[in-house]
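#help-structures
NK: newbie question, is this the right format to request a structure? protein is AMP-dependent synthetase/ligase domain-containing protein
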Amino acid sequence: MKKLSKNPSAVSFIVSAGFGMTETCGGCIFVPVDIFTTKPAREFLDLGRPVIGCEMRIVDPVDGTTPRADGESGELQVRGPMVFVCYYKNPEATSSSFIEGGWYRTGDVGIIEGGSMHLIGRIKDTVIIHGVTYSIPELETHLQTLEGVTHSFLAATPYRIPGQETEGFVIFYSPSFDLDGADAPITHRALRDIYVKMITQPPQMIVPIPVKQMEKTTLGKLSRSRLLILLQKGGLAKHIARADELLSEARGASFVAPSTKTEKYLARMYAGILNLADNEVPTSTKASKLDCH
């Protein structure tokens, strides 16, 4: 390092891609090619082959053992002397992280093609709603495009309300606008509308939170688990109440109550299906835009 700092041009080095975790050591899989001078051959970056002593495989993420064919995606598993032995004082986590044969479940989705590995995403970065699989990063990327969301301070978290048959999402975000401003209801509602276009049903909740409460990890990521704990312990009650007010204000601006016998009948029908009060179903709104509870 001293030599490099005094005369960087005297040291030859390349920047290459690779894979590693705290549990597996950094660079247990890597490709000795400079990523800045080599044109990528595939959509997903080639992360290379295992170092000597390390093995990798792609398997069915459900059973954790059925091998996937070359070029098929699945869960990445690794084993070798560089893989850790156990989590400190956490036998449950250790047991769930290993498969028979000493294979460690990385939780990553990847492809092995021609002996080289490519990562696609994380297994837990997807959620199934009514049989359809949705990508959490893709959803977050679309929601982040809305003007009024503080950059990198938005998290979409899978959440099942007690008694419901399927999961939905809670959207946490830090607004860059004044929540008491005149445009706040419209901006807040726009976030919900983007969600509905992607998921085809309303989110469980949309919660505006000040940046100071959206703590990030040392890696610069928002902790979804911490936000859920805050939600479940009631620590976000006032923010949820304000979110409900904003949606009510946005809905009230164009709300037209059912008046005819047919309209009232349809309102009761939709209210029953969507778990709403009769007076929450307007005649001028598409079913996809209703606020389900």
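mod (FA): yep, format's fine, and the tokens are attached above. DSSP finds seven helices and 13 strands in the chain.
NK: thank you!
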